[in-house]
Amino acid sequence: MQTDFQDIRDGIRALCAQFPDEYHRKVDEDRAYPEAFVDALTREGWMAALIPEEYGGSGLGLLEASVIMEEINRAGGNSGACHGQMYNMNTLVRHGSDEQRARILPKLASGELRLQSMGVTEPTTGTDTTQLKTTAVKRGDKYVINGQKVWISRVQHSDLMILLARTTPLAECTKKSEGLSIFLVDIKEAMQSGMTVKPIANMVNHETNELFFDNLEIPQENLIGEEGKGFKYILTGLNAERALIAAECIGDGYWFTDKVTAYVSEREVFGRPIGQNQGVQFPIAEAYIEVRAADLMRYEACRLYDAGQPCGAEANMAKMLAAKASWEAANACLQFHGGFGFACEYDVERKFRETRLYQVAPISTNLILSYVAEHVLGMPRSF
Ligand SMILES: Cc1cc2nc3c(=O)[nH]c(=O)nc-3n(C[C@H](O)[C@H](O)[C@H](O)COP(=O)(O)OP(=O)(O)OC[C@H]3O[C@@H](n4cnc5c(N)ncnc54)[C@H](O)[C@@H]3O)c2cc1C
């Protein structure tokens, strides 16, 4: 599997070689956005992987996109700075109108615009997405948005955002997943006319924000798909996001196992390499096995997604297995670097923080277990 799509892997590795560990370390230290890196990815066409060829992209599938994300993380970078464009893309490609596709996709392909943000989570409802309180009320040829979002990433480094809001009050819906709609928001325009962005300082170098909407007007032509069907559409993005993040965790997992294997093979204590001790070998070997197993589920999730088949179970399971595997690998890597694991110049502590996020976001491990228990195994619904 690690040798599949060798041409993509070689291309990304060559690009990443121009952005060594020092680059990512400095960006992390400065809490900056890796502009030069994302620009280079865009210039070489990688950010347009999922855009159909007729709109200037490469017309690749989610599987290929996942290999791109995996290789970035495996090379020591963090795809979190740019993965939004990948998981948001299919929402627009699959559910956008011909007019929206023709208007937006060529500009995304050329790099003129970035579609890096997706606004779903809210402060008072959290994981309970269907209860979200942000409303979009139709007035003439516009929708008026009011409400609040939290943890919305890359808003300051994106031109467009996909926003989920309620268009029909919950009380008037027969199912709680109905009555939600998705919109394309022009971020710069919105910041002039009703959307306030408040950055959230956080543990990783991840640009993420609180958003406040106060009578923000969105033209009706920016509604994606049919009004009221937004929850179904947003799942396209969420399943893609889970499969892509699985791939990123797999990239991290290989980075950690490679890094620690090299270190323990060289570091001598008690007159021999520490990697000669089975107490050191076994956690690393176990983490590697888990990364490889998660890799298989990632392929399955992406294969189903690209075939247009249901993949909710596989995307969730891939994300959970991969996040767990990369976290085990991170722990082993930090542990067997001893004190040096805490030194920034080894990059272990940075990658350790980055990969920890994926136990919680974009969906927590508990919620995946609950999804599988209810929707795959058929156990009674718990909420
Ligand atoms: C750095 C970062 C970037 C993010 N970027 C985005 C973004 O771009 N767009 C976006 O929309 N969101 C984003 N998020 C939000 C992310 O998706 C949510 O944080 C995540 O879904 C969890 O929601 P919550 O924080 O509200 O946790 P809560 O829903 O409050 O849950 C907290 C914890 O309680 C547990 N829990 C909750 N309910 C149950 C239950 N029924 N059964 C068992 N356990 C339960 C889980 O362990 C969970 O981790 C981001 C978050 C972070 C930290």
Automatic annotation (TrEMBL):
Signal peptide limits: none
Cited PROSITE patterns: ACYL_COA_DH_2
Keyword Oxidoreductase applies: yes
GO molecular function per UniProt: acyl-CoA dehydrogenase activity; flavin adenine dinucleotide binding
Cofactor: FAD
Domain Acyl-CoA dehydrogenase/oxidase C-terminal: 228-361
Name listed for the protein in its UniProt record: Acyl-CoA dehydrogenase
Organism: Tropicibacter naphthalenivorans
